[in-house]
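U., I forgot to send this yesterday:
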Amino acid sequence: MSERKYWNEEIETLPRKKLEEVQIEQLRDTIAFAYENSVHYRRSFDEAGVGTGDLTSLADLAKFPFVDKKTERETQGVGSFLGEMCAVPESDVVFVSASSGSTGTPTLSPFTKNDFEEWQDVESRLFYMTGMRNTDRYLHALNFTLFVGGPDVIGAQNIGALCIWSGTVPSERLLFIIREFKPTVIWTTPSYAWYLGETAKKSGLDPANGLSIKKIIVAGEPGGSIKATREAIEKLWNADLYDFFGISDIFGACAGMCEAKDGLHLAEDHILAETVDPRTGEVLPDGAHGELALTTLRKRARPMIRFRTGDIGCVNREKCSCGRTHARVSIVGRKDDMFIVSGVNVFPSDVEYVIRGLEGITGEYLIRVSKKDFTAQYAVEVEKERNSSETDERLAERVSAALKARIGVKPAQVTVLEDGALPRATHKAKRLIDERNS
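Result:
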């Protein structure tokens, strides 16, 4: 008996017309549920003068208002712990993940029991799409601390793979686990996959021929979908690389790469994608690059309706050569000045938050973003107060540790300058220099 090609063939290969019929039915149900059960959505729909009666086609979704990170922050904790966007009582919530809080209060993402189980079924679908099977050993090298990607290991267990819950451990420990447990699949970030391979080589190991990894799943950075980067990592490890896309505000990975490696298949039975003009919010045609706005079709704990992700990319709804009919998304970057280091979203405001709160420095700073071995890194320049007796080395260590604690990733270098060395601005200070394309 031949092995099945798809995790859920009926859903994954549903003809577009039928898939869109399912989507409009689920969308009407989600809109009605959100209106009846969420304080925020009732208020925003009433203010916009829209309701389920306005949904005669998927295109009518454009009549409804957007939500974004600002909406989440402003409504979280209002009226209840989970806030005004939540559409179920807290007693129905079995799990919450949280964003890093890099631009303010960490935003929670709640799940009912059914939300959680359906999310993990999507993870199984994406894992299966990469070729993972019950004969694989899977090393889950993602953070488990409130990170939405942590529980995704359950999706691999659903397939029947032997799962190794390593989490984020030092590289030497991870290489020890790889040598001892001999996993065939690992999930990490593109930059860390490169770093880990180079670290292995420096340790006298040959990642291409002396280790067991055959498939690498990456997410958190755009590198997995950049051909040159993907091929370099594949050559380093002699392994196939597959890119995933997820978003903490909805659930873990919600789109993944198939064997064609031509975009990432979005789970369209759970999430509806629009591409909108980043400035005007106008809906753009398929194939045009713009900001992705995502709408959940089944999630109950906190429906997300027209959530502006801040990710710039495009949508392709043509049938893939793999036979799947669900749209493929391609992400090219962010619309703001955010940069990504080791899978962590970093904003200049993150650095400023730390620098302004530390003693012994003036509060002036400069960030330099550069690229090394296919990955972004950042360095920070600070000024020591004139009367400080602390050594430059100790101060740099303290700044680095504070940045790591706040942001989750430490700078490649902290340079300590004397007071007055950095330029002062009378209007808008230029605190970030991007050297990646210089």
